[in-house]
């Protein structure tokens, strides 16, 4: 997959994009990550990218002509079907696991990082195909959201993760959270690894993981259960957790 990121601060990506899984994906040729400094498309000696907003207000707005020229330059070598152009924006649709899987199906993505008070809205109208937010809060720029999205998306590219299909078992992959994980030693400060995980009984271990994943989702993110695909057995477990919580509140 090729991902082009347009930003005023390409150096911000040096650490996160050159370590661990992201470095491995690039080293193996599975990820072609290209960073573009929007200032390279300015024409004045001061490399100006912003101006004061019409109608007043605080802050500065990134200029439509500069940002559009940058996007057109990056897209000039695209195939007959242009790639999605994603604007990092707190007004965009909320990024989640399903969107990460969706974006991973594309051969190329273009991501635009705003700064200051935002980007002239004509860029969105002319060039942007989707706006994406990583949460209901405001950051100083789109660089951190872009890093989050790249990390989440490339996990779904075949060959990036060490274990094939590992992403299919992550939290949120099937609508519920993962249960607890353990490794050696068996006992640590009085806490033991559950016996079922030491039993070698794969069916029992799978059932335990499902039960614990449902328990954590019920306790930590019950909102996910409204849309998660649940079996009759799952619903019985959730009813059991509800009774347990009701009894605990009475004590």
Walk me through the structure.
With 251 residues, the chain is of the alpha/beta class. It is 33% helix and 16% strand. The protein is built from seven helices and nine strands; from the N terminus they run E-H-E-E-E-H-E-H-E-H-E-H-E-E-H-H. The strands form three sheets. The chain has a five-stranded parallel beta sheet. A two-stranded antiparallel ribbon has the order 3-4. It has a two-stranded antiparallel sheet with strand order 8-9. A hairpin with a 2-residue loop joins strand 8 (187-188) and strand 9. Helix 3 (97-103) packs across helix 5 (143-154) and helix 6 crosses helix 7 (232-250). It is elongated. The N and C termini lie far apart (55 Å). The relative contact order is 0.12.
Helix content: 25-40%
Kindly state the mean pLDDT as a whole number? 94
Number of helices: 7
Structural class: alpha/beta
Distance between the termini: 55 Å
Percent in strands: 15-25%
Task: Give the low-pLDDT segments.
Answer: none
Structural shape = elongated
> Gyration radius, to the nearest Å?
23 Å
- Quick one: how many beta strands? 9
Order of strands, widest sheet: 2-1-6-5-7
String of helices and strands: EHEEEHEHEHEHEEHH
């Amino acid at each position: 997959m090729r991902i082009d990121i347009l930003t005023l601060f390409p150096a911000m990506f040096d650490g996160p994009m050159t370590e661990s899984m992201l470095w491995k994906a690039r080293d193996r040729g599975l990820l072609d990550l290209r960073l573009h400094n929007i200032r390279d498309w300015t024409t004045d000696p001061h490399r100006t990218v912003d101006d004061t907003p019409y109608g007043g207000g605080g802050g500065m707005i990134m200029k439509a002509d500069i940002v559009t020229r940058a996007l057109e330059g990056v897209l000039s070598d695209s195939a007959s079907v242009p790639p999605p152009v994603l604007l990092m924006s707190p007004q965009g649709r909320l990024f989640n696991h399903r969107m990460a899987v969706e974006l991973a199906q594309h051969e190329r993505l273009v991501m635009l990082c705003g700064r200051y008070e935002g980007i002239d809205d004509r860029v969105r109208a002319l060039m942007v195909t989707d706006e994406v937010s990583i949460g209901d809060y405001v950051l100083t720029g789109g660089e951190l959201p872009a890093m989050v999205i790249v990390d989440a998306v490339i996990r779904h590219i075949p060959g990036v993760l060490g274990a094939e299909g590992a992403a299919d078992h992550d939290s949120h992959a099937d609508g519920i959270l993962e249960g607890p994980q353990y490794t050696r030693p068996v006992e640590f400060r009085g806490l033991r690894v559950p016996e079922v995980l030491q039993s070698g009984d794969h069916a029992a271990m799978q059932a335990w993981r499902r039960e614990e994943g449902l328990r954590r989702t019920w306790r930590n993110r019950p909102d996910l259960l409204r849309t998660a695909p649940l079996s009759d057995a799952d619903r019985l477990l959730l009813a059991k957790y509800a009774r347990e919580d009701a009894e605990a509140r009475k004590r």
